[in-house]
Design a protein that fits this description.
Helix content is 44%, strand content 13%. By secondary structure, it is an alpha+beta fold.
Amino acid sequence: MRHDNVRDVEAEFLDEVCRGVETEPGLLPVDPENFEKGAITGDMARLDIVATGLFGNMEKTYFDVRVTHPNAPSYYEMTEERLYALNEKEKNDDYLERCLQSEKAGFIPLVYSTTGGTGPACEEYHKRLALLLSSKRRDSYASVLNHIRTRVRFTVLKSIVMGIRGVRKKSTKYRTTPTSLLSFELIPDMKSYECM
């Protein structure tokens, strides 16, 4: 549940500035002998999101989401930086070579923690996404980046609360305003208070 909700929010942001955004895209079949041991080479392999145009007009980028819990017993003695590095390395080992060689596309592991943090690759991706959104909307870069971080953190938080509390009724889609209709400038200018 945590994973799918974050995936959908990221896909919604990408859909505003990229083309060909899909969730759960299948990968081309590959010969396992051509890849490093440990890489995922199955015919039914899927990544979480694909988008064209994030870094270049015709450049395709694949994304795979992982939400990790830093307070798990297996991570007890691990620093947060080491935890993100470990999770990003696992995702890169699984999919990076396949994306580069077979799909001729980039790959970004999107690692989030249940405490609200993000891995270094995810942070760089969010900065690039904020730059594109702010340029398209002519909004402040800082406001857009703040909105992206806040929206993703609240999405993870909602999923955690639902996981702890449970679901009390039949599942429905979140009723949120589409990103394309939102203004990222949520705090009014100080000038609006001067006439009071």
